[in-house]
Design brief:
This protein is of the alpha/beta class. 15% of the residues lie in helices and 24% in strands. This is 3-oxoacid CoA-transferase/3-oxoacid CoA-transferase subunit B.
């Protein structure tokens, strides 16, 4: 698997039978392709579909069935379609068990910046603010550094925060961090990663509690 799919596959291991799960833009959309065998979850996309399936095979693409990233998806038996306002009511009403989001930065307290890039045109904040407030559990999936090698896990975010609520878990291609009341805790190294590399490429303080 490539880096993004490895991250998505690790995030999929956090899901439990019966969870309603919102998949954000980017790496989170790949989680649908890595659900653990025997675990039935209900994948939700904020543009109005509950019951998202894995990516369609060539020749099976329906251009009218897409996720929040505008990428084609499949439907699971018993899925339902609804308007965007109802979709956001589900989020704000606490009916989403897990949200898996991408991020531009995560600070030392586990707070996320993922909606505004200086110098870039952004059409809107999407549902991230609502999900950070309304979802039962929030997992961030992202690359550990930017394309030019700058850390994305930082002591203090230089980008606008999306919400004040900290997330629960951060998963990158190098590491898994639990977010606690006292900050970030490194609990797992991804295959091939070393503690020295994680320290070198992380700009936030964290504690180490590897199994």
């Amino acid at each position: 698997m490539d880096r993004k799919h490895r991250i998505a596959a690790r995030a999929a291991q956090e899901l439990r039978d019966g969870d309603v799960v919102n998949l954000g833009v980017g790496i989170p959309t790949r989680v649908a392709d890595h659900l653990p065998p025997g675990v039935d979850v209900y994948l939700h996309t904020e543009n109005g579909l509950l019951g998202v399936g894995p990516a369609p095979k060539p020749g099976e693409v329906d251009p009218d069935v897409v996720n929040a990233s505008k990428l084609p998806v499949t439907q699971t038996p018993g899925c339902s379609f609804f308007a965007s306002d109802l979709s956001f009511s589900m989020i704000r009403g606490g009916h989403v068990d897990v949200a898996i989001l991408g991020a531009l930065q995560v600070d030392a307290q586990g707070r996320v910046a993922n909606w505004s890039v200086p110098g870039a045109t952004v059409l809107g904040v999407g549902g991230a603010m609502d999900l950070l407030v309304g979802a039962g559990r929030v997992i961030v999936t992202m690359s550990h550094t930017t394309r030019d090698g700058q850390p994305k896990i930082v002591q203090n975010a230089s980008l606008p925060l999306t919400a004040d609520r900290p997330v629960d878990l951060v998963i990158t291609e190098l590491a898994v961090f639990q977010v606690t009341e006292t900050g970030l805790v490194l609990t797992e190294l991804m295959p091939g990663a070393t503690l020295e590399e994680v320290r070198r490429r992380t700009a936030a303080e964290f504690r180490v509690q590897l199994a």
